[in-house]
Amino acid sequence: MSRTFVIPIAVIAVLVLFACKQGESPKKVAESGMPPGPAPAMPVPVDLEALSNRLVTHVAAVKEGDIVLISGRARDMELLENIVIDVRKVGAFPLLTVGSDRIVRKYLEKVPEKYDSQSPELDLKLAAIATVTISIASNEAEDLLAGAPSARLAAVNKAAEPVAELFQKRAVRQVQIGNDLYPTAWRARHFGISQEELAKTFWEAVNADYSEVQSAGERMKAVLSSGKELQITNPNGTDLKIGIGGRPFFISDGVISPEDVKKGGPAVVVFLPAGELYCAPVPGTAEGKAVVAQSYYNGMEVTDLTLTFVKGRMTSIAGSGSGFAKLKADYDAEGEGKDLFAFVDFGINPKLRIWPASKIGNWVQSGMVSIGIGNNTWAGGDNKLFYGYSDYLPGSTVALDGRTIIENGVLKF
């Protein structure tokens, strides 16, 4: 699981984003057969025309003359088509691209490895003219990249770095729909609920009024901005200290406001469903260890994942389960900066509670704590390495300069 400033545009970028995401990785296709087609679209319990209009005019604030890159999958074609029309209705110019699991699989099977590191000229040209992006991204197969050689993924990631940098430099407004909550069948299994329940929760959350989230975000931002050090602890063995003194905090509150546009950088990126507050900490300050009791990587379980940090760098990574070897191999193949502690992220959405039994977390639920390594430009940092790994620490306690602000996964203010 990872975040960057760039959405899928060409085939290479599709591969890149899926390579970075925890648990969204290629199922090996039998030599004698073709890969399965896309899963049928789930019913969406919201008015797609009203949702499209809200995404275009309110969330992304698309205006006359904007150049808007739109991307997604065939299962969401009705919403994507609505977005295209709503973009033109305000005098802006849409470009729609559609990806698929099959494209990613066929890329790995058919495209020569030498092209993995080729400069992504199309992506660079589009990133040089786009002013807005709206993407709906999630793969159908959980193990989409399970058979992908780690060296190939690292090469594709490296080639994409200048694209992500250009998106950020130009302050392109980005709306990313999914946020590791898109209602696929495999994700619903991880959360311990039905796909129908997850779909209802997801789409209603995407279409929610985020005024309460905005207020919660501003309150928590005011508290955190006054502190110098965070300590994250958990009964599973997590004990991690992070310096945050003087670091800017950013809120993903569901809207890119005029004030956000003036700030640029991370302020013009929105992850939906919304409800997060995050920052890149003081470099070199992360000390201790983070333990993730249960997670998934490329569709395989990872248990007791332990990340140990000294002076802001991860000095060891250990774990068990069928997915740990691939996680470690992908990490080992990446370049300078992969081991740097990247960010701390707090969920602030009080209405999104989706799993009754699962130990798997999500970005936005109130009281959730997430941490990561590698890329952190989206959180206000300067590590431009495209690779990143992130995970959740549900049920954690967080103290700010000794004062408890989250206790066992519950916000205390």
Mean pLDDT: 89
**Biggest sheet, strands in spatial order?**
12-11-10-6-5-16-17-18
* Main β sheet profile: 8 strands, antiparallel
As a percent range, the share of strand residues is 25-35%
Characterize the structure shown.
This protein has 413 residues and is of the alpha+beta class. The protein folds into two domains: 11-206, Thermophilic metalloprotease (M29) (Thermophilic metalloprotease-like, 3-Layer(aba) Sandwich), CATH 3.40.1830; 216-245 and 276-411, no CATH class. It contains eleven helices and 18 strands. The protein has helices at residues 11-20, 48-59, 77-89, 101-110, 121-129, 150-169, 185-191, 195-206, 211-224, 258-263, 324-333, and strands at 67-73, 93-99, 132-136, 173-177, 229-233, 239-243, 250-252, 269-272, 276-279, 287-297, 300-310, 313-320, 341-347, 369-374, 388-392, 397-400, 403-407, 410-411. The strands form three sheets. The protein has an eight-stranded antiparallel β-sheet. Strand 5 (229-233) and strand 6 (239-243) form a beta hairpin. Helix 1 (11-20) packs across helix 6 (150-169), helix 2 packs across helix 3 and helix 6 (150-169) packs across helix 11 (324-333). Mean pLDDT is 89; it is low at 7-37.
Record the SSE blueprint.
Elements: H1 11-20, H2 48-59, E1 67-73, H3 77-89, E2 93-99, H4 101-110, H5 121-129, E3 132-136, H6 150-169, E4 173-177, H7 185-191, H8 195-206, H9 211-224, E5 229-233, E6 239-243, E7 250-252, H10 258-263, E8 269-272, E9 276-279, E10 287-297, E11 300-310, E12 313-320, H11 324-333, E13 341-347, E14 369-374, E15 388-392, E16 397-400, E17 403-407, E18 410-411
